[in-house]
Amino acid sequence: MSLNDPLSDALSHIKNVERIGRKECIVKPASKLIG
Predict the structure, then answer these.
(1) How far apart (Å, rounded) are the C-alpha atoms in residues 3 and 31?
(2) Which end of the chain has fewer CB atoms surrounding its CB within 10 Å, N or C?
(3) What is the CA radius of gyration of the chain?
(4) CA 25 to CA 28: how far, in whole Å?
(5) What is the pLDDT of residues 5-14, one digit of tens each?
């Protein structure tokens, strides 16, 4: 994740993982904004 918006990075990562078909994904580093 290399963009400047951490929320956008997290959401695009989740979307990519869903496309691949994985059951779970880990977003690191997590912040209070992301959860």
Answers:
(1) 15
(2) C
(3) 10
(4) 10
(5) 888 888 999 9
31: alpha, beta or left? (left if phi > 0; alpha if psi -120 to 50): beta
- Closest CA relative to residue 10, chosen from 23, 2, 34: 34
pLDDT in tens, 18-35: 999 999 998 887 777 776
The fold of 1-35 is Ribosomal Protein S8; Chain: A, domain 1 (3.30.1370)
Residue 10: CB atoms within 10 Å: 19
pTM confidence score: 0.68
Q: Pull the structure tokens for residue 20.
A: 């691949």
